[in-house]
Automatic annotation (TrEMBL):
<feature type="transmembrane region" description="Helical">
    <location>
        <begin position="434"/>
        <end position="455"/>
    </location>
</feature>
<keyword id="KW-0812">Transmembrane</keyword>
<keyword id="KW-1133">Transmembrane helix</keyword>
<feature type="transmembrane region" description="Helical">
    <location>
        <begin position="59"/>
        <end position="81"/>
    </location>
</feature>
<keyword id="KW-0472">Membrane</keyword>
<feature type="transmembrane region" description="Helical">
    <location>
        <begin position="359"/>
        <end position="380"/>
    </location>
</feature>
<protein>
    <submittedName>
        <fullName>Urea carboxylase system permease</fullName>
    </submittedName>
</protein>
<feature type="transmembrane region" description="Helical">
    <location>
        <begin position="102"/>
        <end position="129"/>
    </location>
</feature>
<feature type="transmembrane region" description="Helical">
    <location>
        <begin position="386"/>
        <end position="405"/>
    </location>
</feature>
<feature type="transmembrane region" description="Helical">
    <location>
        <begin position="313"/>
        <end position="338"/>
    </location>
</feature>
<dbReference type="InterPro" id="IPR002293">
    <property type="entry name" value="AA/rel_permease1"/>
</dbReference>
<dbReference type="Pfam" id="PF13520">
    <property type="entry name" value="AA_permease_2"/>
</dbReference>
<feature type="transmembrane region" description="Helical">
    <location>
        <begin position="261"/>
        <end position="283"/>
    </location>
</feature>
<feature type="transmembrane region" description="Helical">
    <location>
        <begin position="29"/>
        <end position="53"/>
    </location>
</feature>
<feature type="transmembrane region" description="Helical">
    <location>
        <begin position="149"/>
        <end position="169"/>
    </location>
</feature>
<feature type="transmembrane region" description="Helical">
    <location>
        <begin position="467"/>
        <end position="487"/>
    </location>
</feature>
<feature type="transmembrane region" description="Helical">
    <location>
        <begin position="221"/>
        <end position="240"/>
    </location>
</feature>
């Protein structure tokens, strides 16, 4: 373990003009667990399998390796940045440093609003799993009423958000203990699920090499169906930057964070992919219409193959995964809020950037984000389709926020200003001569995937027109509201708060203005 002074230098805080104020106590596994739990193998695959399978059938699984390759290119760029600047709110700070104040703020604003909506979306997975364990978890009605399902999902989700708020407010050490234990359970359960499904396969891999009749109603044929279905994989494989966003609370972050990012995305790809492949090969009946519905999906395959007490145990493990995923998303959103607030880049910046003297964590952002997520959940009661639209748009905003990092990074690389010499000299991660092609691919991938996610489709976004074109309408509204504050109030005040500045000179306190 290195000293606190060395950690500050290694963490790149001096490059941003910040002083150390968070509890630096996370080890290697806790950092890795943060990235894995955000991606959450069991949460993502079990929550979204129905959408991918229902849209394009078994062959939709080819989108899993395609998305992995694209996101790995992004992750490699982030690993280089984490090796130099493992700071809280990493995407925001990286975009600000590589691009400009306005680019950083835009990235942070998109990422923050998306993270709050994502937290609301993740906790809805409780409704898919808890009533399967025990009918008593259907607290509202019996599940047959028009709004029973949605209303009960809001109640269960609210309880979970209250839990993640309390844990995050109590400090990073408690969060790390719960998260690490949960991730360990999730990884063991995920591997066992894949192995048991593999021992119960009923068909060969040829099932993945046929359209199986899907796409016949699409204007672009199976390609159109596949592009829609690929959203299911695109919705899962992100959030690996969380390991770097907790860099100010990690021991030796410049070495730990890049490895944590790599391990998180590799573990998620391999184990999640194995579950998906063997589940399709082991499913009793691939023509069962329930496989393409939220009430059926991957859960129905696992419970039918792993019948009895074993199936119940694995459903409990899925709930553990949902819990730690919710916890990680909430944690990442808090760190991003804190990072922007200490730059006075959000309303009530001083309050949001306050670190509790006992728990050494930003408590106010934990509460505010929890309340906002619960408020968003309420929309789901009477208008579930609008909530689906907002959830999809949240993922697009995260891809756009990533693009605001990889794009400016590519510009720096083309100018010969990246990577810094101290990465290679210090033995830190760097892509070397592979950096330029990987970075170019990351930018092209990010732009292409964002376009695919945003493309107006009634099958995804529904009607009327403002939902069909929701990616452009709602993101435009979110950015518009943000820029309204930025250009009328925020721009004149943005700059590192004196309470968080490494120096207290006028220039540092006022900061750069755009």
């Amino acid at each position: 373990m290195v000293s606190s002074t060395s950690d500050v230098e290694d963490g790149g805080l001096g490059d941003f003009g910040y002083k150390e104020s968070l509890d630096r106590s996370l080890g290697k596994f806790a950092s890795f667990a943060a990235g894995v739990s955000y991606i959450s193998i069991l949460t993502g695959t079990f929550q979204l399998f129905y959408f991918g399978f229902g849209s394009a059938g078994p062959a939709y699984l080819w989108s899993w390796p395609i998305v992995f390759v694209g996101q790995m290119a992004v992750a490699l760029c982030f690993m280089e940045l984490a090796a130099k600047y493992p700071v809280a709110g990493s995407v925001y700070n990286w975009a600000k440093l590589l691009g400009s104040r306005i680019v950083g703020w835009s990235s942070g604003w998109l990422m923050l609003t998306a993270s709050i909506v994502t937290l609301s979306a993740v906790v809805l997975a409780l409704q898919v799993n808890l009533p399967r364990l025990w009918s008593g978890f259907q607290l509202i009605g019996d599940g047959t009423g028009e709004y029973d399902y949605a209303t009960n999902a809001v109640v269960l989700g609210t309880i979970m958000i209250a839990f993640t708020t309390l844990v995050n407010a109590a400090g990073i050490r408690l969060m790390a203990r719960i998260n690490s234990a949960g991730v360990f359970i999730e990884l063991v359960a995920a591997v066992l699920i894949a192995v048991i499904l593999a021992f119960n396969i009923q068909r060969g891999p040829e099932i993945f090499f046929s359209t199986n009749g899907y796409g016949t109603e699409e204007s672009a044929g199976y390609l159109g169906a596949f592009l829609v279905a690929s959203l299911a994989s695109g919705y899962v494989m992100y959030g690996f930057d969380t390991a770097s966003s907790l860099g100010e609370e990690t021991v030796e972050p410049r070495r730990t964070a890049p490895k944590a990012i790599l391990r998180a995305i590799l573990a998620s790809f391999v184990i999640g992919g194995a579950i998906l492949v063997f589940a399709v090969m082991a499913a009793p009946d691939l023509n069962d219409p329930e496989l393409g519905t939220p009430q059926g999906g991957l859960q129905s395959i696992v419970t039918s193959v792993l019948s009895g007490p074993l199936g119940t145990v694995f459903l409990i493990c899925i709930l553990v995964a949902v819990t730690v995923c919710s916890l990680a998303v909430h944690t990442a959103a808090i760190r991003l809020t804190f990072a922007m607030a200490r730059d006075n880049a959000l309303p009530f910046g001083e309050r949001l950037a306050t670190v509790h003297p006992k728990y050494q964590t930003p408590v106010v952002p934990a509460v505010v984000i929890g309340l906002l997520s619960i408020l968003i959940l309420v929309i789901n009661v009477g208008q579930p389709k609008i909530f689906t639209v907002l959830t999809s748009i949240a993922i697009i905003m995260i891809y756009l926020a990533y693009l605001m990092v990889t794009g400016p990074l590519l510009k720096k690389r083309l100018r010969g200003e990246w990577p810094p010499k101290d990465l290679k000299e210090g033995g830190y991660f760097t892509m070397g001569r592979w950096g330029l092609p990987v970075n170019i691919f990351a930018v092209v991938w990010g732009a292409g995937m964002a376009l695919n996610l945003a493309w107006p489709r009634e099958a995804v976004y529904g009607t009327p027109w403002y939902n069909t074109w929701g990616a452009f309408v709602y993101i435009g509204v979110i950015l518009g509201l943000g820029y309204l504050w930025y250009f009328t109030v925020g721009r004149g005040h943005i700059g590192t708060l004196t309470s968080h500045a490494a120096t207290t000179t006028a220039g540092t306190a006022e900061g750069e203005k755009v």
